[in-house]
Amino acid sequence: MDTPIASLYLVSVGALAMCAFQAALLARSSSYVRACWTFAVICLTFALFQFSNVQQQHAPNLAAAIAAHKWVNFFSLLLVPQIWYLLASLDARTGSFRLAYAVGCVTAWLVAENFAAPYGYRFSALTIDVPGELWWGEHAFLLAGETTPAYTVNRLLSLGAAVYAAIFCIRARSQRVRFSNRLVWISVALIIVTTALGGASDAGKLELPYLSGFGFLFLAASYLLLVRREATQRMTEKIRISAALEREVESHKRASLRFEHALSNDALTRLPNRVGALDMLHKMFVTSESNLTRMGVLLLDLDRLAIINGTRGYEAGNQLLVEVAQRLRNHCGNRMLVARLGSARFVVGIAGHKTWAGIESEVEGILAAVKAPFSIPGTVLNMTFSAGVAVYPDHASSAEDLLASAGLALHQARDAGPGNLRVFHPSLQQSLSERIGLENELKDALDKGQFILHYQPQVCAVSDRVVCMEALIRWHHPTLGLVMPDKFIPLAEATGAIAAIGSWVIDAACQQLASWRENGFTDVRVAVNLSAQQLLLSDLGDTVQLALQRAALRDADLELEITESVLMQDPQRSIERLEVLRSLGVRLSIDDFGTGYSSLGYLKLLPVHAFKLDRSFVRDIGRSPKDLEICATAVGLARNLGLELVAEGVEDAMQAAQLRKLGCHLLQGYYFARPLAAYAATDFLANKRKVA
Questions:
Q1: At 609, phi and psi to the nearest 5?
Q2: Environment class of residue 543 by beta-carbon count within 10 Å: exposed (0-12), middle (13-18) or buried (19+)?
Q3: CA 582, 588, 594, 600 torsion: positive or negative?
Q4: Cα 5 vs. chain centroid, distance in angstroms?
Q5: Is the pLDDT of residue 388 over 60?
Q6: Distance separating alpha carbons of residues 134 and 142, to the nearest angstrom
Q7: pLDDT at res. 129
Q8: 484 and 452 in contact (C-beta within 8 Å)?
Q9: pLDDT, tens digit, for every residue of 200-221?
Q10: Is residue 471 within a helix (H) or strand (E), and if so which, with residue range?
């Protein structure tokens, strides 16, 4: 398209785009806001009209020329109702907009006719369908032929717009308003002349490209000149426009610099963002290729940032992110790329190592740098990071693929639980696809009634009688069968479905307990596990109370179990939430005690009734003196704090005997019963054990 006519058209495209931008800017300070915005849209439409003309004139063949011609038609059709609407915006008389809307309806029909007809709405048949020679020697596709009734309709609408504009200008001149300017008259005359020339070209009488866009360009400049004079009254027209253009250019320069900086940097942490990180990764990638060295990408995701935001507020969460960024920056210095990809995710680019061992050592150092507790106003937080690693050339052949591979490894790490690290493996691609499929099916599982509850008894260590049934959710998948909670609960938390699922578990467990009460099991209670997100829900108390009311149960009939690691993320906030739950009258217990690095100072403050000793300590109680001592210590701790102790994972008579001897209160495990379906749990209560 490097020809004089094409260059002229493309210059007009840029000029019209700038006019649109100027009109949009003036809309903010002008009293003609709607008119300025409409004029900006008209400028953009004319720019697209000019660009489509270039596509038609330099089309490689007739078919391409006709296709481009339809777009020329399309934008020219759009201009008619837009001009009507602009005049209506300037005209104070009632009914002006109705006329503009009517023209818009007719134009909609013409647009449909344009794309349905073989040559567009203008022609029923072509008389000129080959490139013609312009008077200065250039060749271009200028189509001409027999015009259609639709073409006549549009010409009448265009003529009506011209008449409307002339009437408006005459009336404006008589009233001495700001738009009664000689430039406007000249511009309107130019548009009428160029439009008439376009009609002659369509009929084949002249071989000229459409020039109405250039006529409008003159009108655009005139219109903006008048509006700018209205906005800046203190200076002469030439000085005002010159100064405004200079300010605008300077503003564009500053805005461009700010935009470029914002485009590649994170405002909160002052680290590069995703765009900046990719740019730097590209450079590191090129260097690694040329030096024949390995390049690693480490993705770090701050676990449970949403919990901090929900409990401590976004200000605390932001401060935490800033401190993470500072630690990474201090540790990595200029040796490595450190960037924030968004939310709680950071990326570290590691280059210059010949072996995997070197990259592995760097990764270990980075993880150690962010491991220490974080201090924010009012508390100290023990945070964990999920991490994914990918290495060039082992796992990817480009910077984008390397980042994507590290992302897949991070997904696997998050699935394994907080604080895990995974290195990319090709099988992760298929694993992630399966996860996505499971997430999609999980969304409908509750509505389809695919969740069921199993129950595992807790027995009194002294009397061997059942005192509690712990509700354990299962997903009865139509093709995968029974899916365990460790497979789908993390997905439910990630997709936000955990709130609805958790409410269903509480309600279903209470209904089952009500059924057992009707069968005569009057003293057994039911226990339900709470996820981290459930603990933060503001309506959790209402959910619990409603479930108990529907089942006609007492508050103490329900026990809520909270994992210790969840409580230790933000102990002070956890204590506040547990106080609210305890005030409802329900029982509270700490699950998996001993795995979350609890502070005994916090433990004595937790308003709970019991804690459950994790199965990892019970498993080797008969063979490991250390595990036996841990269990004995836990029993003594529970006794001193006035709490019940439940031992999980009791699988044989020897373990049960040892725990009874230590003074443990309640026992739970396969030795007594595996998790049972509701009907089997009912039989167990009726036939195998007496209820306490």
A1: -100, -25
A2: middle
A3: positive
A4: 45
A5: yes
A6: 10
A7: 72
A8: no
A9: 676 666 666 776 666 666 666 6
A10: strand 466-477
Quote the tokens at residue 17: 């785009």
- 265 strand-pairing partners: 272
Q: What is the DSSP letter of 520?
A: T
C-alpha to C-alpha distance for 203 and 126, rounded to whole angstroms: 10
Across-strand partners of 458?
468
Residue 566's pLDDT is what?
67
Helix (H) or strand (E) holding 672: none
Above 50 in pLDDT, residue 100?
yes
* Cis geometry, peptide bond prior to residue 485 (ω within 30 degrees of 0): no
Place of tokens 């150092």: 365
In the block, residue with structure tokens 């480009």: 398
Residue 389 CB contacts under 8 Å (≥ 6 apart), including other chains: 296, 297, 298, 299, 359, 363, 406, 409, 421, 422, 423, 424
What single DSSP character describes residue 265? B
DSSP string across 477-509: ETTTEEE-HHHHHHHHHHHT-HHHHHHHHHHHH
CA dist list (Å): 622 to 367, 594, 654? 37, 18, 7
pTM beyond 0.70: the answer is no
Task: For residues 351 and 281, give the distance between their C-alpha atoms in angstroms, rounded to a whole number.
Answer: 10
> Residue 591 forms beta bridges with which residues?
563
User: Cα(493)–Cα(271) distance, rounded to whole angstroms?
Assistant: 29
| Joined tokens for residue 487 | 């497979």
Pair of tokens at residue 341: 């990809």
One DSSP character per residue, 641-670 reads HT-EEEE----SHHHHHHHHHHT-SEE-ST
What does the alpha-carbon distance between residue 649 and residue 595 come to, in Å, rounded to a whole number? Answer: 14
Fill in the amino acid letter for 187.
S
Q: What is the pLDDT of residues 556-590, one digit of tens each?
A: 899 999 876 666 666 677 788 888 888 889 999 88
Got the DSSP string for 113-152? Answer: HHHHSTT-SSEEEEEE-SEEEPTTS-EEE--EEEE-HHHH
State the Cα–Cα distance between residues 562 and 564, nearest whole angstrom.
Answer: 6
Fill in the DSSP letter of residue 344.
T
Highest mean pLDDT among 26-35, 153-162, 233-242: 153-162
Please count the CA atoms within 13 angstroms of the CA of 561 that sit on its side-chain side.
21
Mean pLDDT along residues 317-339 = 89
What are the structure tokens assigned to 309, written together? 């935001």
Asked if the bond preceding 393 is cis, omega within 30° of 0, the reply is yes
Other Cβ atoms closer than 10 A to 489: 19
